[in-house]
Amino acid sequence: MTCDGVTLAVMSETCVHPGCRIILGLNADGLCSWHDPVRRRARKQHNGIPQGHADIEDLPIKAITSMEDAEKLAQWVPIAIATGALGGREGMALVSALREYRMTAADADFMRQFEELKRKVIAAKAKGMDI
Hints:
Blueprint: E1 2-3, E2 6-7, E3 26-27, H1 37-47, H2 67-83, H3 88-126
Antiparallel strand pairs: 1-2, 2-3
Helix pairs in contact: 2-3
């Protein structure tokens, strides 16, 4: 049964978004008003949440697990600010967090190289080489 394009849920149906248990007000795609992007934007505007605030669904990646992920996010920031998907303050905070991630990754890489060199020196000394 539908009402204004929103399917009234049968009690056994829940929102198709992983982990969501909402059963009322599902749209034709099976999404509740919280997870339906169209209704989420309308709710934000109605509640006065300023535009320029990005949700996780708006980001080009869901987690930073590599430098490539950090690069994708860094490339997205200026476009998101220019189009209003992200505010300037949030953009600067994101750039700062990305910079911190890059420095942490560089430090971790340096420590891996140092540990490898240390293992090689220990192995060389064990073979009787004078280092």
